[in-house]
Amino acid sequence: MTKDSRFLVSCCHLGMFVQAMVINLTPLLFIPLREQFGLTFEQIGRLVLLNFLTQMVVDLVCTALADRVPTKPLVVAANFLAALGLVVFATAPFVLDSPYAGLVLGTLIFSTGCGLLEVLLSPIINAVPSERKSGAMALLHAFYPIGKVAVIIVTGLALWLAGVASWPAVVLIWALVPLLNTLGFALVRIPPLAPEQGGTGLLTMLRTPTLWLLLAAMALAGASEVTVAQWASAYIETGLGFSKVIADLVGFGLFGVGMVIGRLWFARHGEHEHLDATMRLGAAASAACAVAMATLPLPWLALIMAGASGFFVSMLWPGALSLAAARYPLAGASLFALLAAAGDGGGALMPWGVGVIADAVAHLPGIALGDLTPEQIGLRAALLVSAICPAALLPVLAALRRQAR
């Protein structure tokens, strides 16, 4: 591999880090934002909804534009929008008449950048000459949970040392990372992406029930992963009663470490003849972890289950992609853009639903359960309902097995 290729690969790795950083930074701020601006759980969940719906729209648009627009301007714009969105998120709430409108504006901007990164990074890595393309692709996607863990640890420590009121400064400092990567991609040469030749057309695939099952699997995988990822810190702090530093560094951190271990293990062992069994294990165990987190009477046990949840849920997204690649080996980039849109759709709706359910339960007349506050009861009930997503993945996997036979 040439020096230019190594630099390009490093920019792609940092791009995946940026995507993870931007998506997972906001959940660490859920409780500070709620307390500072008087937000409801539904409004917090709506930020997640807007984040992933925006990425889903970008995925769908890129299905038509990715092969018509030069790659370099798109990937440069992706990193710049991620940086700009973070700057707006940190500053607009204190400038606009409506602080929440500022948060929404920043979310829309950085989510657009994240959507572009999601679509572009994998084909760029695939276009770089390499003797181990599958290993290179696996390493790229491992940088997502690595970025998640890094942002959890650094942000959690920063908020603990400087105080939660310092969150705008922390967000502005993080904005330097995508800004640096904007410069990196602007300087590096990007090879032309391989054109699709003799592939299976998207319209042809849409006429098959298998694709619709795969889209359902992807949506449920996205919902299962993103719900816990986005709500873990807030749930551990408010729902279980831990301090914010414990919620961020131990609870959310354990979830992130579990994802790193799971993704690296999956990259090495996931693509074999037992892929279906691995997926079923991940789905069943993810549902069990959500139920355990919501119902275990000892908070420390629920905290440990957050780490286990990260490990098992990490198998679902790459597993769904691997199933799709096996069923449609001649498919082009349009298939994976559509799958990403389905995953982002699931990742948008269920986290928002958690906020809606938590608010609804917390405001029920006379709601009481032991020493728990109404807010704690609401969050526990919402997390319990979210177990439906990985559980529903099991019959979808069974239907895919029947289709394969």
CATH topology: Growth Hormone, Chain: A
Q: Which residues sit in consecutive blocks of at least 5 with pLDDT less than 50?
A: none
How can the largest sheet be summarized?
Answer: none
How many DSSP H or I helices? 17
**Class computed from helices, strands and strand pairing:** mainly alpha
Characterize this entry briefly.
With 405 residues, the protein is mainly alpha-helical. The protein contains 17 helices and no strands.
Question: What this model shows, in words?
Answer:
- The chain is mostly helical.
- It has a single domain, classed as Up-down Bundle (Growth Hormone, Chain: A), CATH 1.20.1250.20.
- It contains 17 helices and no strands.
- The chain has helices spanning 3-25, 30-37, 41-65, 71-91, 99-127, 133-162, 167-174, 176-187, 202-206, 209-239, 244-269, 275-295, 299-313, 316-327, 333-362, 374-386, 388-404.
- Helix 1 packs antiparallel against helix 5, helix 3 packs parallel to helix 5 (99-127) and helix 12 (275-295) packs antiparallel against helix 13.
- The protein starts with a helix and ends with a helix.
- The mean pLDDT is 84.
